[in-house]
Hints:
By secondary structure, the chain is an alpha+beta fold. It has six helices and ten strands, in the order ββαβαααβββββββαα.
Amino acid sequence: MDHTFEQNCTVSYKVLSPNTHGSDHHYEIDVCASAEELRQFDREGYLVREGLFAGEDLKALQDALDRLEDRESGAFRDSGKRSWGRIPRHLMDKDPVFLDLLKFSPVLSIARAMMGPLVRLRGLSARISYPAAAPHQTPWHQHLRVVSNPLPPWFSRPHGLDALIYLDDLNDDTGAVGIMPGSHNWLDRAPPPDVYEPVEGELVVRVKAGGGVLIHSNLWHRGLPTLRIKRRMLILSYTPTWLRRSPHGGPPPDDGLTQAILEGDDEEARILLGKGGYT
């Protein structure tokens, strides 16, 4: 996939490396966001991105997810109760179209700007929700919630970026997404369990197919019910290199497409896949 996006600012980092005899590493990151957008992301925990994909690029992702849906159709059974729908995992190991997203700069450059140059892929998964008698929707939740109460003196707060990329129009028919701006900074509380209804301060976001919502992994959010039209969404996630890969979905397949990259000499890709970039 070829993408041309405006690079609105440059962020410079020097990674201090005392264990390599003073050979510090310098990074210049051309970020697909403005300095003000990065400040907003830090403050509010989300960025809306229209037009991440369009035309043939969008269709390639739709077709790839449809192929995977057909191939793994036996793994999903609708329980007849309110549910999250279908959640395929390890997409980059299953189709080269998804593998092309490993270095997708409109997301990766922002992840590096916010968390430093040493980031890794935490996962690429999908969520497919369908119109059903019992709605497919999600309650208020977070993705990386690991906080002790009280906070220990050396507490290491988990950070991550999740790009919610919508392959269908995100609207009232497919189920919009509700977010709680600033909630990624709430270390003294968690989302109310099993609550699907609006809460005070919620912002409901709608985007066209090919657009996305970038969120801090601990932002409170929920998926509104899919009412009339199937909704396909990708979740492209990055964390610092020293955080482990997402445990959800079990280990990747032994014959996955990323294995050849891990055995190759593309050091940037190896770090993005979790092999390097940490001590």
